[in-house]
Amino acid sequence: MSEPTLFERIAQGDIPADIVYQDDRVTAFHDIAPQAPVHILVVPNRAIATVHDAQPGDEALLGHLLLTAGAIARDLGLDTSGYRLIVNNGPDAGQEVFHLHVHILAGRALGPIVQPPG
Q1: Are 30 and 103 in contact (CB under 8 A)?
Q2: Is 30 a catalytic residue?
Q3: Which of 20, 35, 60, 65 is the most buried (most CB within 10 A)?
């Protein structure tokens, strides 16, 4: 059996975090290195390393992950001015923790999603 991921340990309460939402399937908490005034991570409570590791049986969990991200954004009033949801997949996309997660970013104009080459 592999070691639990950082995010699994947060969801299990083994590592402290500023949790904003938790249920039996997902946990949401403030990022410790925020990239915007609001930066919340929403993670499945069980590890799925990347989108490519998700299985057909994970469909309901993945839908719940996105619906929860939207509900959190709405509860925080972020839906008025807008927010960004990001799922990084793999090292070239900037994924640092290999436990699928959704970033909720808001609180300022975020600019382009990627920078043009140059």
Answers
A1: no
A2: no
A3: 65
Which residue is listed with tokens 């959190």?
Answer: 72
pLDDT tens digits for range 27-62:
999 999 999 999 999 999 999 999 999 999 999 999
Q: What angle do CA 78, 81, 86 make, to 5 degrees?
A: 60
Domains in the chain and their CATH numbers? 6-106 (3.30.428.10)
**Quick check: 14 and 46 in contact, CB under 8 A?**
no
CA distance 25 to 27: 7
The answer to whether 29 and 10 are in contact (CB under 8 A) is: yes
Report the predicted TM-score, pTM, of the whole model to 2 decimal places.
0.93
Q: How confident is the model at residue 1 (pLDDT cuts 50, 70, 90)?
A: low
